[in-house]
Amino acid sequence: MDTGIVTKPHDALANTLSEEMTAVNDLIRRRMASKHAPRIPEVTAHLVEAGGKRLRPMLTLAAARLCGYSGPFHIHLAATVEFIHTATLLHDDVVDESGQRRGRPTANLLWDNKSSVLVGDYLFARSFQLMVETGSLRVLDILANAAATIAEGEVLQLTASQNLATDEAVYLQVVRGKTAALFSAATEVGGVIAGAPQAQVQALFNYGDALGIAFQIADDLLDYTGDASATGKNVGDDFRERKLTLPVIKAVAQATPEELSFWKRTIEDGRQTPGDLETALAIMAKYGTLDATRADALDWAEKARLALAKLPQDPIRDMLEDLTDYVVSRLS
Amino acid sequence: MDTGIVTKPHDALANTLSEEMTAVNDLIRRRMASKHAPRIPEVTAHLVEAGGKRLRPMLTLAAARLCGYSGPFHIHLAATVEFIHTATLLHDDVVDESGQRRGRPTANLLWDNKSSVLVGDYLFARSFQLMVETGSLRVLDILANAAATIAEGEVLQLTASQNLATDEAVYLQVVRGKTAALFSAATEVGGVIAGAPQAQVQALFNYGDALGIAFQIADDLLDYTGDASATGKNVGDDFRERKLTLPVIKAVAQATPEELSFWKRTIEDGRQTPGDLETALAIMAKYGTLDATRADALDWAEKARLALAKLPQDPIRDMLEDLTDYVVSRLS
Predict the structure, then answer these.
(1) Which of A289, B5, B74, B227 is surrounded by the most beta carbons within 10 Å?
(2) What family is this protein classified in (chains A, B) (predicted)?
(3) What is the ipTM score, two decimals?
C-alpha cells in the first residue's frame, strides 16, 4: 500500500471537518485554562499541542454529521472525548513509568507523578462538565459506561499483562478498555446527539469498537515490527515492560516446555537478559504469530468497514470506510 | 467540652439514618465489585472498610430527608459522594507518598501507584454512573463543577503549598478544593434531589461549604497539636511534607527576617534538620497562630450553624447543627 494513498482518508476527514475541528481546538484551549492553577495548562498544552492526530474527536464530528446533525453540541462531545483521551494518557504515564510519548518525554518526567495524576483528574472533570452541557442523559450514560470500561480494562491489564494464563479473550477485554471503549463511545455519542435511529447508533458503536480494536492490535504489533521514528516508541518496549500482547499470547499458546520457561522468566518473572528480545522475536517468527496478529488486525478493520453498511451513503461514510484501511496501513 | 457530649451529634445522625446508611453501604459494595478485575475490590475494600466516618454520604441523606425527600435516589447520591471521596484519597496517596491513612498503611504501599491511580479512576467512573441513574441534570451539573473544583484545588496545592507567598485567600481556595467542595456538593444535591426551593438549596450549600472549611482547618491545626493515635497521622507531617497550612501562613505573615529564612529553608527549599519542627512550633506559639487558627475554625463552624436557619425545623436540622460542634470538637 502506497503511503501517499493511505494517509489520504485521514487528511480527507480532517479537511472536510476543518471548520469544526478548529472550533473543537478552541474549546479545548478555553476549557483547559485554569484561573487558579497555571500548572494545568502547562501540563496539558504539552500533550494537547504535541501533534496528536485528533482521531477520536474527528470520529464524533464525522458520526454526528453523517447522521445529519446541525446543532452545536458535537463540538462539546468531540472536546469531551479528547479530554478523556488526554487524561488517560496522563494517568498511563504515571502507571507505565514510560519515558516517551509521541516522541517527546512524558509529562511525568518533565513534571512529576503528582501533576500527571491531578491534572488528569482535572481534565476528567472538565470533560464531565462539557458533556453535562449537552443536556443529554443518554450521552452521559454512554460516556459514564465508557469511563468505567476504560478504568476496568486498565486495572485488568495490571494483573493480566504479566500472567501467562492471559488468553486472547482477556486480551480483547483489555484492548476494549484501553482503546476501543473510547472509540465506540466517540462514534456512538455522535449518532445519539444527532437523534439517529437506534440501528444507526448501534452501527456507529460497532464501527468504533472494531476500529479501536484494529487500531490497538496494530499498535501492539508495531511494538515488535515498527521503527521508533514512526511510532514514537522503541521496538520491544512492551516486551521489556513485560506486557503480554497478542503476538506473545499466540506464541505462548503453542509453546514447547522450553519456550514456556523462556516466557515465564522474561514476562512473568521479569528476569530479562541481553538477547532476550531477539529470542522472543525468533520464537514468534517460528509460529508466524506476527503474521497471525496482522491478520487479526485486518479482520477487525474489515468488521469496522462492514458496520458502516447500515449508515447513510455520504462522502463522510466513504472517508470512515477508508479510515479502516488507514489504521492498519502502518502494518503493510 | 465533654467528649461524651460532642460525639453524640454524629452518632445521633448515624442512628436516625441507619436504615438508609445500610442501603448506601450495600450499594457501595455492589458497585465497587468488578467481574473482570478482582484487584479493584481488593484495593477499595481496604479503604471503604477502614472505618471512615461516612460523614459525606450522611450529609447527603440528611439534606434530602430534611427537605422531605421520599424517593430512592438520595441513596445513589450518598454512594456517589463516598466513591468520589474514596477516589480522591487513592489519588492523594500517590501524590503525597504518605505512608499512613486512617492509621493503616496507604493503598499505594500495600499495592502500588498503578493500582491507586487506576482504581481511583474506576471509582470516579462508578460514581459518574450512579449519578447519571438519578436522571437529574442539575445534580450532574453540581457534581461536575465540584469535581473540577476539587481537581483544581489539588493542583493549586502542588504549587501553592511550598510557596511562602501563599496567603490566607489562596489557602482558602485550596481548602475549598480539597475538602469543602465535596461537603457542599453533598448537602446541595440532597436538597436538589428533594426538589427543595432555591433558598433552601443555597442554605444547604452554604452549610456544607462552611462545615467543610471548619473541618479542614481543624485537620490542619491537629497536624500540629493532635496525637497520632487519635488522628491516624503523625504530628508535624504537614511540616515535614512542606505543606504550608494556616498555622504557618499566619506565622509567615508576621515573621522577622530571621524567621522568614527559617520558613524559606524548611518549607520552600525543604532542607530540614532535626529540631526544626520544635522551632516551628515555638515561632507559632510566639505569635499565637495555633490559637488564631482554632478561632478561624470555630468561626466557620458558626457560619455553618447560621446557614441552617433557612432550613425547616426538624430533629435532623438539630443534629446538623450539633455537627458543627462535632467537627471542631477535637480542638477543645
Answers:
(1) B74
(2) Belongs to the FPP/GGPP synthase family.
(3) 0.89
First to last CA, chain A: 6
Strand, helix or coil for residue B38:
coil
The set of cell numbers assigned to A319 is 472517508
For A241-253, write each residue's pLDDT tens digit.
888 999 999 999 9
Grid coordinates of A229: 521514528
CA distance A299 to A305: 10
Dist CA A249 CA A136 (whole Å): 41
Q: Are A73 and A199 in contact (CB under 8 A)?
A: no
Asked whether the beta carbons of residue B37 and residue A152 sit closer than 8 angstroms, the reply is yes
Question: In angstroms, what separates the C-alpha of A145 from chain B's closest C-alpha?
Answer: 7
Of A112-126, A181-195, B106-120, B236-250, where does mean pLDDT reach its minimum? B106-120
Which residue would you say has higher pLDDT here, A4 or B271?
A: B271
Q: Which of A35, A117, A166 to mutate to test the interface with B (most CBs of B within 10 A)?
A: A117
Query: Which residue does chain B place closest to A156, by CA atoms?
Result: B37
The pLDDT value given to residue A6 = 43
Please count the other Cβ atoms lying within 10 Å of the Cβ belonging to residue A109.
16
Q: Annotate B222-288 with DSSP letters as a single string.
A: HHHHS-HHHHSS-TTHHHHTT---HHHHHHHHT--HHHHHHHIIIIIS----TTHHHHHHHHHHHHT
CA distance A28 to A31: 5
Spatial distance between the Cα atoms of B85 and B64, rounded to a whole number of angstroms? 19
pLDDT tens, residue by residue, A261-295? 999 999 999 999 999 999 999 999 999 999 999 99
- CA quadruple A86, A87, A91, A92: dihedral sign: negative
Query: What is the C-alpha separation between B159 and A114, in angstroms, rounded?
Result: 11
Residues of A in contact with B154 (CB under 8 A): 118, 121
Angle separating helix axes A198-225 and A315-329, nearest 10 degrees: 20
Domain residue ranges in chain B: 3-329
For residues B205 and B198, the answer to whether their CB atoms sit within 8 Å is no
Pairs across A and B, CB distance < 8 A: 141
Q: How far is A35 from chain B (nearest CA, A)?
A: 9
- Provide the H-helix boundaries in chain A: 3-6, 8-16, 18-32, 39-48, 55-66, 73-96, 107-110, 113-133, 137-160, 168-175, 181-193, 198-225, 228-231, 237-240, 246-253, 257-263, 276-287, 289-307, 315-329
Q: Collect all residues with Cβ–Cβ distance below 8 Å to A92 and sequence separation of at least 6.
A: A98, A154
Please state, in angstroms and rounded to a whole number, the distance separating the CA atoms of residues A263 and A261: 5
| Neighbouring C-beta atoms of residue A199, cutoff 10 Å | 11
- Is B325 within 8 Å of B2 (Cβ atoms)? no
Dihedral, CA of residue B150, residue B155, residue B159 and residue B160, to nearest 10? -10
Q: Does residue A4 register a pLDDT over 60?
A: no
Please tell me the predicted confidence (pLDDT) of residue A281: 96
CB contact under 8 A, A128 and B128: yes
**DSSP one-letter string for B137-202:** HHHHHHHHHHHHHHHHHHHHHHHHTT-TT--HHHHHHHHIIIIIHHHHHHHHHHHHHTT--HHHHH
DSSP B210-221: HHHHHHHHHHHH
In this structure, what are the phi and psi dihedrals at residue A296, rounded to the nearest 5 degrees? -65, -45
* H or E segment and range at residue B95: helix B73-96
Phi, psi angle pair for A136, to nearest 5°: -105, 110
> Does an H or E element contain B110, and which?
helix B107-110
Spell out, as residue ranges, where chain B has pLDDT lower than 70: 1-8, 46-52, 95-111, 227-233, 332
